[in-house]
């Protein structure tokens, strides 16, 4: 299993892998997904694979199929070009978001990530409310978040931005980075121990790919310019892919995200808004929405100036978004169950008709 440890394998995965008695040759990690074909790396090196029909046809949603960072079980075919993925090992962490639009389908970002680097540019991209949203998702994923404030050379008062971000992050480390002279890059590199998997998230043009290149010591990712009028960049990363750094760590660079809908905020919401979560324990009703109920300790603190109005509004928005998403998921589950029952009934009628003709 030594070759797998360099890919991020740990005792956690070993214990869930066939009771620790499986063959290492049947395990690999997903490093990229391109048009339905998966690029994997295992003890024997890198190769491509296709999904088994059970995974391809039986998936209820995108989470039922492999994603970058997953550990999968593979079955070799008659040739090296016929490797099949036939199962996905349990995920230790999962970072995902909801897509834009009324459907709000879940869109996986990466699995089995140890660190989530939330990158925001100080050239006009920084936004407190967006930072809170990323922090909720990162915490809920099970990974450890770190905030990177890139392009610190373009900010008139970087120190003030760092203080503000630290106040919003509640214990999460905030690192200002200037990719031009390398300031702050060493601090990021220190967090990347051998076998650690990190994922970069943020808007287009914030410097994710530039930072990855600095960490790799080579131009492994394409980079692009940013529009001066609105600090918006173009997508230079077109798909999620795993890169292996000289220090032994693993990074996953992702395409820029203009929108980041919450998926299952859960404990991540309370962890990101601890002042509100603590006050909520004193509300008269245990299911208080903190919007209109009498005896709401959160609203009382807000009226007394003890809760920041911007934080309060952000909390309510994210909580409502999470609740609405949960309702949509429940409806989708019911529809999927009905669809399966309908298909089973149709298949049964076909079988009965066939038997009747014999």
UniProtKB/TrEMBL annotation:
Q: Give the cofactor note text.
A: Binds 1 zinc ion per subunit.
Indicate which residues the UniProt annotation says bind GTP: 150-153, 202-210
Q: What are the residue boundaries of the CP-type G domain, all occurrences included?
A: 103-260
Q: State its location(s).
A: Cytoplasm
**E.C. code:** 3.6.1.-
**Mainly resides where?**
cytoplasm
User: EngC GTPase domain location, by residue?
Assistant: 111-258
Pfam families given in the database record: RsgA_GTPase
Cofactor dependency: Zn(2+)
Xref: InterPro entries: G_CP_dom, P-loop_NTPase, Ribosome_biogen_GTPase_RsgA, RsgA_GTPase_dom
Keywords of this protein's UniProt record, alphabetized? Cytoplasm, GTP-binding, Hydrolase, Metal-binding, Nucleotide-binding, Ribosome biogenesis, RNA-binding, rRNA-binding, Zinc
Q: How does it assemble?
A: Monomer. Associates with 30S ribosomal subunit, binds 16S rRNA.
Purpose of the protein: One of several proteins that assist in the late maturation steps of the functional core of the 30S ribosomal subunit. Helps release RbfA from mature subunits. May play a role in the assembly of ribosomal proteins into the subunit. Circularly permuted GTPase that catalyzes slow GTP hydrolysis, GTPase activity is stimulated by the 30S ribosomal subunit.
Q: Which family does it belong to?
A: Belongs to the TRAFAC class YlqF/YawG GTPase family. RsgA subfamily.
Full protein name? Small ribosomal subunit biogenesis GTPase RsgA
Q: What organism is listed for this UniProt entry?
A: Geobacter benzoatilyticus
* Gene responsible for this protein: rsgA
